[in-house]
Write a structure and sequence with these properties.
heterotrimer, A mainly alpha (about 200), B alpha+beta (about 150), C mainly alpha (about 170), A: about 200 residues, Rna Polymerase Sigma Factor, Chain: A, elongated, B: alpha+beta, 2 helices, globular
Chain lengths: ~200, ~150, ~170
């Protein structure tokens, strides 16, 4: 069967088929699921972390955890939904630990040049593509800095809404909280970003 | 830049709580709140033994007399609104409007007739206490201690 | 536009932008936005931030992701099934070198037990995070830490007390 990297629905065998094979110990079947879903999983991680290498590492980590927990996946939800929850939790765990290690980890790293990490590709730089104007470059850097001021939970809610396009109910299920909490987190996150990025709008 | 009038921001929080309760549905998480109403003054030297700790917290804002006027423990849920009369015709409103980061999000207002003496929102860790003091009462001031467990 | 109306509406704008507002609340907010330039600007701000974030992530994710693969290239990636304890050890050692942590934990336990044996348990730390304080008159916020309580002290606008509060 031909595989298709994610970004759209697979054209051939659905995820369920590959999940069932993987649950029976077929490692190649899980490899197919990784190939299909790694881009969307990575997008969530990049949105929450703002750093390419870390996002890459934690997406891989999420797949490891998914594989370890595959026996518990009963198919009540889609595999992609289940995986998204794992990715989000892996990133939340990392951010919470990072906060304890140093309050300026992850997103802060995206702000400047990190001499120790010349290969690191950062979210800020993704808004600096050759066809980008100065304004977009500035806004990209400013967004990264502003995102760093949000709590891990606010970042997660914002990414799940803006990148994944989830409803409040779906976000609540993913983050295991009330929909009212989702509403509150999104309100405070956007309000904060609006205040911090105001000068960029009012140019 | 658009500035927000402080007294109006309270309504914003109120709306969030209202929408959440009626439209989007807060979880009915049970919480226990305890409100202690204290009269502090410089008349006499009576200090209720139960208030010794609070007295020690007040730094140089010490008074010589502390009387516990009322202790009101009550169980409620996130999203429920509570109003409680305070001495001197004032009113204390409590809104536990959310749980986040391991803390209880509370909105507290103290009004005296049409005057809004205080309007604040804060996050209270489990078992923590916040003191609100200063409103004039009789020959001293009122101090309200609010603690929560959930 | 009456700023009070804007402040009342503002918290719901995010939900409106997300099409997560319904019924009477939605009608109220939509009706206000129709006549309020300020709130329309806020909605536009939210849209701009969302669009910029999506664009950044989209461009960022067009990079080569072949490093995310199966079986994982990570030398330390374990194969299932793991026992609960193996999983715990893996989670810990994934991020930190365990030996300094274990040594530190042992020292900490010894210290805590020692302190516990010679002293009564310390008071629990009070933690209150003030998000917003609006008051009619001057107000002082004294953050609590290390067992101290957080204090909000209200002063009469016309009658300042002669005491000088000092942070605890």
């Amino acid at each position: 069967m031909r595989s298709r990297e994610d970004g759209g629905e697979p054209t051939e065998a659905p995820d369920d088929v590959w999940v069932a094979k993987a649950q029976k110990g077929d490692s190649n079947a899980f490899g197919e699921l990784v190939t299909r879903h790694r881009r969307r999983a990575y997008q969530v991680a990049l949105g929450m972390l703002g750093h390419h290498d870390t996002a890459l590492d934690l997406t891989q980590e999420a797949f490891v955890r998914a594989y370890q927990s595959l026996a518990h996946f009963r198919g009540e939800a889609k595999f992609s939904t289940w995986l998204r929850r794992i990715v989000t939790n892996v990133c939340l765990d990392y951010l919470r630990k990072a906060e304890h290690r140093t309050p300026t980890a992850s997103y802060d790293e995206a702000l400047g040049v990190d001499d120790d990490d010349p290969d690191g590709v950062r979210l800020a730089s993704t808004l600096e593509s050759p066809d980008s104007g100065v304004w977009r470059k500035e806004l990209g850097t400013a967004i990264v800095a502003a995102m760093n001021t949000l709590t891990p939970e606010q970042r997660a809610a914002l990414v799940l809404r803006e990148i994944e396009g989830l409803s409040y109910e779906e976000i609540a299920k993913t983050l295991d909280c009330a929909t009212g909490t989702v509403m509150s987190r999104l309100h405070y996150a956007r309000k904060r970003l609006q205040v911090l990025l105001r000068e960029h709008y009012e140019r | 830049m658009r500035r927000t009038a402080p007294s109006i921001r309270a309504l914003a929080v109120l709306l969030v709580a209202q929408l959440a309760v009626t439209g989007l549905g807060w979880s009915q998480t049970p919480v226990n709140l305890t409100v202690q109403v204290i009269h502090a003054s410089n008349t006499g030297t009576t200090v209720d033994p139960a208030l010794a700790k609070i007295r020690s917290q007040l730094g140089s804002m010490k008074y010589s007399s502390y009387k516990l006027l009322e202790t009101r423990p009550f169980s409620t849920t996130v999203g429920a609104k509570h109003a409680m009369p305070l001495p001197g015709g004032k009113t204390l409103d409590l809104y536990p409007y959310g749980l986040s980061g391991g803390g209880l999000e509370l909105m507290v207002t103290i009004t005296d007739g049409a005057k809004r003496l205080l309007d604040t929102t804060f996050r209270l860790a489990n078992g923590a206490t916040i003191l609100v003091g200063g409103p004039a009462y009789a020959d001293g001031v009122l101090i309200v201690a609010i603690s929560g467990s959930f | 536009m009456n700023p009070r109306a804007c402040e009342t509406i503002e918290p719901a704008l995010s939900a409106l932008a997300d099409r997560e507002l319904f019924g009477a609340e939605r009608e109220t907010v939509v009706g206000h936005v129709a006549v309020c330039e300020t709130c329309r600007r806020t909605l536009e701000d939210y849209r701009l931030v969302g669009a910029a974030l999506r664009e950044g992530i989209q461009i960022g994710s067009e990079r080569d992701l072949s490093a995310i693969t199966w079986p994982p290239r990570l030398a330390h990636a374990p194969s299932p099934p793991l026992t609960r304890w193996q999983r715990l050890i893996y989670d810990v050692t994934r991020w930190v070198d365990p030996w300094p942590v274990l040594a530190g934990a042992a020292a900490l336990i010894a210290l805590v037990v020692g302190v516990w044996l010679v002293q009564p348990a310390p008071s629990p730390v009070n933690m209150v995070e003030i998000e917003r304080v609006d008051a009619e008159g001057p107000v002082m916020v004294i953050p609590g830490s290390g067992g101290k309580m957080t204090i909000i002290w209200l002063f009469d606008a016309d009658d300042q007390p002669d005491v000088t509060p000092t942070p605890i």
